[in-house]
Specification:
The chain contains four helices and four strands; from the N terminus they run E-H-H-E-E-H-E-H. The mean pLDDT is 96. The protein is an alpha+beta fold and 110 residues long.
Length: 110
């Protein structure tokens, strides 16, 4: 399973639609993520560069990409940025693996 954090900004038309007809968008997001084999874990509105953030779990990066491509293709968003997250245990395993392969790299010399 892979966890993804997606930050998004709504298009002007989407924002206008939510102001004119207030609605819980979590249900729509959960539906598309489930259709792609994933699960919506958390969804927040936020202040700042993005209008919201979603944390979701998918069986693979391909499943996540399918959901996000489908959502992005609708024109409802002006910006979408997704980051794949790894938990601390995976991070430690990555550090252990890096320790074993670091000598295979030669940094640039000047």
């Amino acid at each position: 399973m892979s966890t993804h954090m997606t930050q998004f900004s709504y298009s002007t038309a989407s924002m206008q639609g939510m102001v004119n007809n207030p609605q819980n968008r979590r249900e729509a997001a959960a539906k598309i993520f489930a259709a792609a084999g994933g699960r919506l874990d958390e969804m927040y509105f936020c202040f700042g560069e993005y209008d919201g953030v979603v944390l979701a779990t998918f069986p693979s990066n391909v499943n996540a990409a399918a959901a996000l491509l489908a959502v992005g293709s609708t024109g409802a968003f002006s910006d979408i940025k997704t980051t794949t997250l790894i938990n601390m245990e995976e991070g430690v395993r990555a550090m252990e693996q890096a320790k074993g392969v670091v000598d295979a790299y030669t940094p640039p010399a000047g």
